[in-house]
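Entry for the shared binder. Reason: the reviewer on the internal report wants the predicted structure included alongside the sequence.
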Amino acid sequence: MTEEQKAERRTLVARNREWGSAETVRRAWLSEAFLTRTSPPKTAETFLAVAVAHGEHTEDYHRLYLKLAGGSQDPQDDAYWNASSKIEARIDAATPRQALMLALALIVCEWESTTSRNTWRHPGERDRRYLTALIGWGYKPFRRRTADPGRTRRKRHPGHRAGRGRRRRAGRGRAARG
């Protein structure tokens, strides 16, 4: 491999790691902030209408939704296989705004389940719409660092001591022991 190819490979590996970290953060945000909403965010209706118009939904939407909403993830559990009936029960008990939020959550979870490392390499129009909508609804994207293969490590400040471990608490140093 040439040096240029090696640099491209290092960049690719770094971006893949960053995608994995961003996915973890995004799914945590979905679970903790988005799926706990009781009413849909602004533009939810338009987002759903475009998704339905493009036929951008599948039959497998419920698995990630249940995982992020705290449901069963065990294929041996009946709740895992009866997810559709649980979701239908939630819809039946919901107000119209809550039902809209549930529909939005199902579409968002389905789209999230289809993202992969290839999404950052070759994002489609759907991926752009999805991630742009999440940002508009309050998601703070993972900040990507610039990948400069020639970049050297940052120098530490003069007072930094590597390998020291935890800082000592006031009054617990050697002098305090006695």
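Summary line for the report: The mean pLDDT is 76.
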